Structures are given as C-alpha cells and as structure tokens.
Amino acid sequence: MTTFNSTPSEPTTSPIPVLELTHVVKRFGTKEAVAGLSLRAYSGQVLAFLGPNGAGKTTTIEMCEGFQKPTSGTIRVLGID
Fold first, then answer.
1. Is 70 exposed, middle or buried (0-12, 13-18, 19+ CB in 10 A)?
2. Do the beta carbons of residue 39 and residue 5 sit within 8 Å?
3. DSSP letters along 38-70, please?
4. What is the pLDDT of residue 15?
C-alpha cells in the first residue's frame, strides 16, 4: 500500500489529529496485512487509500473503526486510543 503525507490547506482549529496511526501492524497468522503504517489526518483533510487487492486497505479501515485490533502499534481518534 502506498501512502502520501499531506498537510491541511487551511490552519486547523486543533493541533490534535482527528485520526493518528503510529507503526500499526496487522498479521493474520504468518501473513502481514498491514506493515508499520503511520499517518495523521487533520480536520478538513481528505484521505484516500489506494492500492491493489490484498494491500491492507479494508483491514486498515476496519482497525480505525474498531472492528479489528492491530497486532501492534497505536490508533488514536481525537487523541484517544
């Protein structure tokens, strides 16, 4: 999965990211679906996940929503784990 880091086009009202992933890893047995993903998304940003089938896009979104837990790393929404 390819990720790009962007900055908000306008200043945000809070320096706390709406969504922050830090070194997130997800494994299913010996298969590593997400490998050390880190990103920050701030209010007003548009975020897209692009990649081929099996790249870990859906798994990443499911971890952000709380449907799956990462094997390691942290996911924070509005600064809360």
1. buried
2. yes
3. EEEE-TT-----B--TTSSHHHHHHHHHTSS--
4. 86
Rounded Cα distance, 10 and 25, in Å: 31
Q: Are β-strands 19-28 and 72-77 bridged in parallel, bridged antiparallel, or unpaired?
A: antiparallel
Q: What is the length of the chain?
A: 81
- Domains and their CATH numbers in the chain: 19-77 (3.40.50.300)
Predicted pLDDT of residue 1: 63
pLDDT tens digits along 18-31 = 999 999 999 999 99
Contacts of 13 (CB under 8 A, 6+ apart): 43
How many whole angstroms separate alpha carbon 62 and alpha carbon 39? 15
Strand partners, 6: none
Specify whether the CB–CB gap between 15 and 43 falls below 8 A.
no
